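Interim report, section 4.2 (structural modelling).
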Amino acid sequence: MKRTCPTRPELSSRQFKSLLAAAALLLIFPGSLLAQQTFVQTDTITSADTLGVQYTPAPPQNVVAMDTPNDGGGSIIITWGPSPDDFDGGKVKLYRILRAEYNGGQPGEFTEVGDVPSGKAEYENEDGNTTDDIMYLYRVMAVNRMTNEAGEIEEYTSESPATDPVTSSAQWFDSRRINALVGVILLCSFIIYFIQQARAGKELYIRKIAGMEAVDEAVGRATEMGRSIYYVSGLGDMDNMQTIASMTILGRVAELAAQYETHLAVPVCRSLVMVTGREVVKEAYSKVGRPDAFKPDQVHYLTDDQFGYAAAVDGMFVREKPATIFYMGQFFAESLILAETGNSIGAIQIAGTAMPAQLPFFVAACDYTLIGEELFAASAYLSREPKLLGSLKGQDIGKGLILIALIVGMLLETFGIWQFSNLFSVID
Amino acid sequence: MRREVPLLITAVVGITFVVKYFVPHFPFNRMDAWFADWFSIVQACAIVLGALNLLKLSALKVIGQKSGWGYALVIILSFMLITVIGLAEGSDYRDPGTSFDWLYVNMFIPLSATMFSILAFFVASASYRAFRARNYEATVLLIAAFFVMIGRVPVGDVITGFMPEGYRFSDLAIWIMDYPQTAGQRAIMIGIGLGVVSTSLRVILGIERAHIGTGD
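Predicted structure of the assembly:
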């Protein structure tokens, strides 16, 4: 039997033509072809081909460039499959990111825009160095670095093919925060609903807060003893919610002090708090018909420095021995220094802060402590205004929902039924 | 107008910042930086008010020879000294080797450190009161504190060295801090978060207005 292989002469012919074309290209465009080669060497290499094969890492694979999602633009993410030589002790020491603009269908020159260590497979130009609406091409270069006998560092590199053109753009909604949006809408709806209910005259039950109940008693005590009341608003500035809550409580304390004709001193450590505090105290004095009793210097500035402030306030406590001291606002390490000094002079002390680390100190050293949310509830509690009380009720409903979610989540997570906690992950 | 304008500004800025959290697009993504700059500018202007107020009160105390006037004199002299030296040394006043730096390193830092170190003594006295087993809660606190404290010092593990790994005082201290303590703290944090949202909403809606000095 004669066996023939009819395709063989045709294949040889194709191969021959391809070789001819490659040789022609080599002769015509040697520079451009070298630029596409998988390794670039420094000028000190000898027997380049041998070393190149030995040290040049395989290029990264499946390089993809895409617009960074949920951002304000100016950023592109590049991902790739690691080079087969990317392992502990492998040839890849780092990946170098190359970028070129892509205008009118023509790629520009590729330049380095950053690098990442081996073992990683993602790069994001977080510095925002891309311009929105300009098309870019990316390549990822696997780099091996060797030191030769002369002590010089040589690099052996291989590049991936260029990605498809990509452009960065800004988004109008951060989809990662949709859970927070749902939470905010729910909570705000509850609060607004109960505010409306309160406006309509519905009776709302609010549990007693011992610290707030004691405010009248504390001010009265200072009056009976003929001593001052000190109100310390903490280290926060007017951009801090605790300080804003503190100012609302200050208004109520100032009203009582004005009614009882008791001296109120408010040493502050922020100039803006001084300005706001003066306005609040002045208003409170006017409200109870004692505008003449208000002295602007009742609210006075000491220093912005944490321990300087603590030292100054401590000194005043020891010299003037106030009968009542309020600590309401944001406190740090000075909390215990102040509260223990106040305790040592026998003052009745009411504290409130939303700094969890300082709460134990206040609980230990003060007579009453408003814990966390009680500080924010204080103004509603003190004023008894229906609209404010309504907001507290809405807040409580939100708390109830969170409690239910915690119990359900605990059960689901415990039995591994569903990744429930992922619903509550919030991007900072 | 005195009430309406601040309330309107508060509402607009408040709502804008809520929107900003969900919108990464320009101009919302730049607002943090812009408002931080504005806040710094307002703060820088206000610091003059604060400093002048401090000087005025101190001067009045010294002139009137009121109680503690000696401290007020120290405030005035220190204020003048550091201001004059700072201004005399120009823009490089904070560089190492300058007189300002010398005062900062050799006077300000030790004084601050002294105040901070007093905290150690106050912690001891406050702990003594807090850990007295007056009732059930205080007793639980005392027991938990005992195990945490003894678990945080080497002697704790020496005492329980015969126990297998994972059952020593240090492990118990870690467990108390990681579970009951963290759970309690998170409960407080959730309450604080809700309180902040609620207060913010009251401020934005203009229901809470005592902080702008216009009563309720």
